[in-house]
Amino acid sequence: MTGSPLPRAFFDRPVDEVAPDLLGRVLVHGGVAVRLTEVEAYAGPLDPASHAYRGRTPRTEVMFGPPGHAYVYFTYGMHYCVNLVCAEEGTASAVLLRAGQVVSGLEAARERRPRSTERDLARGPARLCVALGIAREQNGADVCTPGGPMLVLPGEPADPSLIRTGPRTGVNGAKETPWRFWIDGDPAVSPYRAHVPRKRTRS
To answer: What confidence score (pLDDT) does residue 203 get?
Structure first.
């Protein structure tokens, strides 16, 4: 899938404005294109759920940089997740890409996820990264420069009447910040999971 990517100005806005506007847009990498159906917003140092809440670290350096770049992190010792950096440089805001539908490069996505159904190829943040071939090497990738290996294309923005918002998945205190956005009724949206406090074990 080809075309001009979204301009950097698209991402140079408050994260809670960019997040719902990403629904229906198309992320392209590794010969696969995914139409985004579910995202979550994280507001950097202002947001206790953000990786950047405690400040700049080697891991979060990309988040503090200019908008329109990918922040890729490794989680649970087994999965990669991809975010898109938003707002002005230094704010560390980013949108987690939670789910989408493969709209091009289906065979390549199936090779990367051979046991998956077509609906589930990119249904969840880790699955989305596997389907697109996104890993640590893509951390910091510029998604706005034409011809780059990872791009966000305009696609067809989701119908505003179908966009829903609610608590972020697995986040403590999520109800106070309903920054999970998804396309209502889309089969590619991942199941919602509430935060479950970890049980402390006696030493």
So the answer is: 45
Separation CA 144–CA 79 (nearest Å): 25
The pTM of the full predicted model, rounded to 2 decimals, is: 0.90
The span from the first CA to the last CA of the chain, in angstroms, equals 55
How far apart are the C-alpha atoms of 81 and 85, rounded to whole Å?
13
Q: Do residues 95 and 39 make contact, with C-beta atoms less than 8 angstroms apart? A: yes
Q: Is 161 helix (H, G, I), strand (E, B) or coil?
A: helix
Question: How buried is 80 (Cβ within 10 angstroms: 0-12 exposed, 13-18 middle, 19+ buried)?
Answer: buried
Nearest CA-CA partner of 96 in 173, 181, 26? 181
- How far, CA to CA in Å, does 199 sit from each of 6, 48, 194, 196, 202? 44, 20, 15, 9, 10
Please give the Cα distance from 31 to 131 (Å, whole number).
10
